[in-house]
Structures are given as C-alpha cells and as structure tokens.
Amino acid sequence: MKTIAVALLAVLLLARGSCNAEDFSSFHENVLGTSLELRIRADSSGAASRAEQLALLEIDRLSKIFSSYDASSEFSKFQSLPTGSAMPVSNELYETMQQCDQWTRISRGAFNPGVEQLSRQC
Alpha-carbon distance 83 to 77, whole Å? Predict the structure, then answer.
C-alpha cells in the first residue's frame, strides 16, 4: 500500500498547481468496469496530461494485481487455486490480504471480503 501512496503523491506533485493553475478534466470508459472522471489542477495541459497518464498507469498496474474480474490477475489466480495449494504472491497482495484478515477480526466478521465469492454463486 505504500507504493500506492507514493504513486499518488507523485501524481499530485506533478500536477501541483500554483496561482495560475487550471482545472483539467478527462473522461474514460471501462476503467475497472466503470466510468472514470479524472479532475486535475495543473499549471499546463502538459502537466495535467502527464499526471493523468501516471494515474491511469497506476490503476492498470493495481488491476493486474487485485482484479477479481480479470482471470489473469494475481488475485484471480490465487482465488482459483485448489484448497490447500500455495503460490507466491506479491508483497502488495499479501499485505492487503493480511489487512483484510485483521479487519475481519476487529469487526468481528462485519467486514468479510469473502462475501463477494458467495454472492457470485447465486
């Protein structure tokens, strides 16, 4: 998750506006299965374009790890393993799964990421 924060900070610093900054908007369809409106405040359209590209690249990178809809994502491959099987996973996926386990315990089961799998079986 630290990587995500660093990437977003880089995007913010790249697009950081001064008193002369303008607002730039872009629209994208089919980003993580939905529409995306990206609003960036930047000194120039070039800076806004670079920030937009970095944000989209990070979304794509994270999707390749965490998507439950893309069969080729790391998470989907992990989910499709037979019970009792193991596979090496990235630090990001491992840390996220650890956090999910922790929040499931803290919330006494109110937070349960496994519910999605159950709803797909209906």
Answer: 13
Cα–Cα distances in angstroms (integers) from residue 82 to residues 71, 74, 112, in the given order: 15, 15, 21
The amino acid present at 100, given as its one-letter code, is: C
pLDDT at 7 over 80: no
Confidence (pLDDT) at 33: 82
Token pair 């079986």 is found at 121
Radius of gyration (C-alpha) of the chain in whole angstroms: 18
Which region holds residue 108: left if phi is over 0, alpha if psi is between -120 and 50, else beta?
left
Mean of pLDDT over the chain: 85
Structure tokens at 114: 């496994």
Mean pLDDT of 7-24: 66
